[in-house]
Amino acid sequence: MQIYVAGNVLRSGDGTAVHPFKTIQEAANLASAGDTVFVGPGIYREWVKPANSGTKDKRITYISTSRQEAIITGAEELRGWEQFENLWRIRVPNSFFGSYNPYTDVVHGDWFSNQENPPHTGDIYLNGKSMYEVFDLNTCMHPAADKRSWDPAFSEYVWFTAQENDETVIYANFQGKNPNIENVEFSVRKACFFPEKEGLNYITVSGFSIRCAATQWAPPTAFQEGMIGPNWALGWIIEDCDISESKCSGISLGKYYQKGNNNKWTTSWIKDGTQTQRDSVCQAVNEGWNKETVGSHIVRRCDIHDCGQTGIVGHLGGAFSVIEDNHIHNINNKHNLAGAEIAGIKLHAPIDTVIKRNHIDHCTRGIWLDWEAQGTRVTQNFLHDNVPPQGTIIDSGLSLGEDIFVEVSHGPTIIDHNLLLSDIACRISTQGIAFVHNLIAGSFTYVGNGTDNAGKRFATNRYTPYHVPHSTQIAGFMTILHGDARFYNNIFLQKTVRQDLLEYCVSQNLDTIDKNNFICGTSVYNNYPSAPEYFSGFYKGAEKDKGSKDHYYDHLPVYLSGNAYFNGARPCDNEKCHVDKDHKISFYVDEEDGRYTLHTNLYEFLPRNISSPVNSSVLGVAFEPEARFENPDGTELVFDRDYFGRKRGIHPVAGPFEECRTDRFTVQTPGFGSYMIRYEEKKRISEKKESDEEILEEVKESQTIYVEPKDEAPDLEEIKEPNFTIDEDEFENESRVSEINSNVLLTGCESCDIKFPFEGGLFQVSDMFVKGNEVWLYDGTNERLVELDLEYGIYHNLKKWSVGSLQSLDVSDEPNIEGLVRTAGTLLCILSKSMTHDAADTCETIQSKVNSEIEAKGIKMRLTPKYLKFIRNKKFISLEDVIYRMSRGSMDVVTERLEN
Q1: N or C: which end of the chain has fewer CB within 10 A?
Q2: 411 vs 413: CA distance, rounded Å
Q3: Distances in Å between the alpha carbon of 236 and those of 56, 62, 204, 346, 621?
Q4: % of the chain surpassing 70 pLDDT
């Protein structure tokens, strides 16, 4: 059944398209398994509480018909302000709030840093942005910039609340703005889309804007609130949503309410929080926490930002989940909340959870995996600027931040193919971890430290659980011995140490190698044993020979191979690796219109023969749980694809990128969500593109080019006689569907009559999908899709496919882009040997014609019978770059996929 909601109708109807409901809750009361709720644009000031559960085969789906334009908010408009000296004042009867008044309720809970004046759960919003709460009228009248904030200028927009005569009185300093003219709101609800009942499974929420809820602090030992979340259920999908301005957490995948153990530490003060957390894990297992009933959620393509505690939080309930393609940013930037539960993503017990292809930046901490990160994989993520900006006052060690923090877990935890570019890359108070094919520009901190519980007279080691592989069943408890760490095929680039960060650490006596050092590399593991050294100490009679059992509690071994170190980054003692002491590596990231580009001369000096393929057999098993490093389904884990999804060779390049003939990588593209291409496995047939002299002639002296050494072993995938077709029967089977997610869809090609001879017939181009330098040409007349790699000059007929895109552009809007579609078609025609004219002459003619139009925009095209290249400012760029630079400012959002 289809149910319709439109907030702009005068009165509610029966949920049909002709007479839609006025509120989403009316639809939620009715929707059952298999139903779809379509929600029109508008502002829905309500807390949606789904009433029914879907099933695995028949989900309940809530869809915003216009992405981001159906707004579910926990706030109400606040009108009727009166002037009070240099402030504005408004009185709200307490009866307005019902059973929950966010202006009497304060933020509290385990691991929340108790403040003299804890903030209220409510917030005041000026034009959609939350202001800063202060705690006396004088400060409200005369605010000063809060230097703890990452946005100190806005911190002078402040508010203060008091209770008078059963009314909530709010005073606000709008810095000269009139609140009766501006858009001023205040949060009044705990959530926006969150069931009151547990166990409502298989619900999809797609394309909404969800914002401004008065959520409570969400520690692992309490019921974890969020603006949106499943509330202890199975199989939710939250996708394509904009989620912002939660007081505490945006999305909660977390813990249910446990009777007798809800903030027990900070309400009874008898058992320490570590003990109550152990109790909560055991209680959950005893009460039915397992893979069949809880978790397995998907959070994808969401923009999650400006929340006070976390973008995504979850203890126990986030296990077996996938968090992918999201942009998570500006979390905890106000620094009005402090404590040990703050990050862009903060998960406890993320068993078999995969965090991939996310862009995480400007958060107090990027990702924090705390306890039981067993089977957790963090892959293909782009993390940067997750430490305080210069000039910020750092008020605690936890405010120092880093890209990834893994704490008191036994593993196996896998961190691979990430860009970790913050000044502190990872805080590693853990064991059973593997770093593979990462680009790491920051330091590793708290290696060998941070796992006790702050005792002085007595030992306070934290004993944490480990589980039966791929299960919630507890296999045992153990403290952290440190080590059991693997580092394979990573690149370490030492950054210039920020003096302000160093000075803070020195002032707090935290500047030691086992705390907050700023040395990039694995030297923090100096004096840790190798595997042969460690395991040779265990034999019958060892205790007698050694005189104690200390060897059972010594550091675990460290495994290292294939790493490269530059700019003074330091390897571990006795590590066999590449250390470059002769060259200065430059690297920086720039951003233009949401496109992030990494510039570096690294690949001019990176050797190609230092790394070997890595898989589950190479990584072995994590020591304590005796669990293999493998995929969540128990299959072999093979690191055979790079950050972009490209197939790696038999001698993989160290770091995240397999293709390394450039000094420029577009690592993030604009659009809704955070996409990267998912390449289908196919045979790559390569040949030498052009002579080194030709390349250098084209890009002159400022372009950094890597030239293959003449004496290097040949690529085994290369064949002597180039044949740019592939035997489809060999590499495709009838049942496999190629899932393609592009960034740009070029429509309207059919109306422009773009067609060309191809494989004995006529190819009529209807649409062209673009991702980087890879395109998919669609012939709607003959229902065929051809994949074309412009860079390598390879084409591939797809048999079964599902193709979609983020945004679309009609080629009639930009004649130059129509020309580029024709150029790609011509290249395909040439590669398939369907060209009747001289290919070189044809390419030269097209190249001249196109360049006469696009060179005015600073872009030059080079078309040969083998491939297509674009150059801007003497640097190679992709076809996708060209389209973005030439197109209109805003593209249309695409919601449908083509399938065959």
Answers
A1: N
A2: 5
A3: 10, 11, 6, 18, 31
A4: 91
Q: What is the pTM of this model?
A: 0.78
Closest CA to 630 of 350, 253, 354: 354
Q: How confident is the model at residue 150 (pLDDT cuts 50, 70, 90)?
A: very high
* Residues 6 or more apart in contact with residue 491 via CB below 8 angstroms: 438, 439, 440, 563, 564, 566, 602, 606, 654, 655
Q: Are 277 and 341 in contact (CB under 8 A)?
A: no
User: What are the C-alpha distances in Å from 791 to residues 648, 720, 774, 842?
Assistant: 16, 19, 8, 19
Tokens 């860079």 belong to which residue? 791
3-state secondary structure of 594: coil
- Element containing residue 870 per DSSP (H, E): strand 868-872
Mean pLDDT, the chain, as a whole number? 89
pLDDT tens string 171-212: 999 999 999 999 999 999 999 999 999 999 999 999 999 999
Helix, strand, coil content of the chain in percent (nearest 5): 15, 30, 55
800 to 60, 785, 897: CA distances (angstroms): 28, 9, 13
The stretches of 648-777 forming alpha helices (DSSP H) are 692-699, 728-731
- Residues paired with residue 124 on neighbouring β-strands, in sequence order: 186
Half-sphere exposure of 11 (CA within 13 A, CB side): 0
The set of residues, in sequence order, having a beta carbon less than 8 Å from that of 260 and lying 6+ positions away, is none
| Alpha carbons 563 and 614: distance in angstroms, whole number | 12
Q: Where are the beta strands (DSSP E) in 236-342?
A: 237-239, 242-246, 249-252, 298-300, 303-305, 310-315, 322-324, 327-329
For residue 37, the model assigns a pLDDT of 97
State whether the Cα torsion 475-481-486-490 is positive or negative: positive
What does the alpha-carbon distance between residue 322 and residue 352 come to, in Å, rounded to a whole number?
Answer: 9
Cβ neighbours, 10 Å, residue 216: 24
Is it the case that residue 74 has pLDDT exceeding 80?
Answer: yes
Count other Cβ atoms within 10 Å, centred on residue 539: 9
Separation between Cα atoms, residue 273 and residue 588, nearest integer Å: 42
